[in-house]
Amino acid sequence: MAIAKAERLMNLALCLLGTRRPLSKRELRGSIEAYLEAGSDDAFNRMFERDKDDLRELGLVIETVENLDGDTGYLARRDSNRLPPITLDAEEAAALGLAAKVWQQARLAGAASGALQKLRAAGMPEAEDAYEVHSALEPRIPVHEAAFEPLMLACRDRRPVTFDYRKANAARPEQRQVEPWTLECWRGHWYLAGWDRERGAERVFRLSRISGKVRSRAGAFTAEVPDVVTVRETVESWAGETATRTALIRLRADSGYPLRARAISVRELGDGWEELEIPYGHGLDAWLVEFGPDVVVQEPADLRADVVDRLRAVAKD
Question: For 212, phi and psi rounded to 5 degrees?
């Protein structure tokens, strides 16, 4: 059914773009096989109106013209549906090339490469890639989780999903029903922000803790989708970016470099250990657990207890 509709929309778009004069419904019905097969005039009219609305939603500018006899015709002028000339200077082209490199290891690599080829064919200047020749560092956004692609599509299409999710302090995963809003990459990890239907509240899920397949569900969203800024703030707050106080930890020397980058102060303790004062926000306990025996929380006591609980849960798993 999806293929048949796509073919019908394509044929309608070609008819509207290929004509020099407005075409009536009768003429369009006689030109498109799927419309000829419609069982009745009412069925054709409903199908045509839906298709016309779908094409307009996809960005096609369709004009409605009424002739002297009162008949209504439709056309899509090519000058109204043509992109303006692409004018990018060398610096802008370099920025686009650098952005495309970010996705070379992700599922979007093909789309990024294809987009660059189309832009270059349209006249985008070739830019010298300083990162490729002169630097050993290359930008990357790693995407290893199988859940990334289905969740990305679900966010785009506004489709509810279900998946099995294991919290850091849980021994077994549990099923979640989520209305996905957006995906965010924070400190090398991907997070999904969305509305958890069972809990009736917004939640953030780390993709690496999703097990099994992500399954799409029919139906519309039940909760309002916030703007992008709000979602990003939710992700950052949950992941520990928004700090409300500080924590004191012991860190083994030559380890935990992400923690060192956030440290407010560092003091040597001897015997291969250092003491760090770092910002303490929601989600810091889950981050500290990742460093295993290289980190020991000194204070506050509630953070130390949370880290111990998480380590015990992982040991039981």
Answer: 75, -165
Cα separation, 19 vs 50, in Å, equals 21
- Token pair of 26 as six digits: 């009768």
Mind giving me the DSSP string for 260-306?
A: HHH-SEEEEEETTEEEEEEEEETTHHHHHHTTGGGEEEEE-HHHHHH
User: Any idea how long the chain is?
Assistant: 317
Instruction: Tell me which residue has tokens 């270059």.
Output: 120
Q: What is the pTM of this model?
A: 0.47
Please state, in angstroms and rounded to a whole number, the distance separating the CA atoms of residues 117 and 96: 11
Using a 10 angstrom Cβ sphere, with 0-12 exposed, 13-18 middle and 19 or more buried, the burial of residue 205 is: buried
Give me 4's structure tokens.
Answer: 């048949």
Q: Report d(CA 284, CA 304) in Å as an integer.
A: 11
For residue 183, what are the CA distances in angstroms to 131, 207, 232, 289?
27, 9, 9, 23
Alpha carbon of 38 to those of 5, 14, 25: distances in Å?
13, 20, 13
Per-residue pLDDT of the chain (317 residues; tens, 9 = 90+): 456 788 888 899 989 988 888 898 889 988 888 888 888 889 899 999 989 988 888 888 898 888 767 788 998 888 777 766 777 777 777 777 766 665 555 555 556 566 666 666 666 666 555 444 444 445 555 566 788 889 988 988 889 999 999 876 566 889 999 999 988 877 667 889 899 999 998 888 888 889 889 999 988 899 988 877 666 666 666 655 566 788 999 999 888 888 888 889 999 998 899 999 998 876 778 778 888 889 999 999 988 988 888 788 777 65
Which residues, 6+ apart, have CB-to-CB distance to 226 below 8 Å?
181, 202
Determine the Cα–Cα distance for residues 261 and 218; give it in Å rounded to an integer: 44
Report the DSSP beta bridge partners of residue 275. Answer: 250, 267
**What CA–CA distance (Å, rounded) separates 188 from 99?**
16
Locate 255 and state its tokens.
Answer: 């380890």
| Tokens, residue 35 | 């419309």
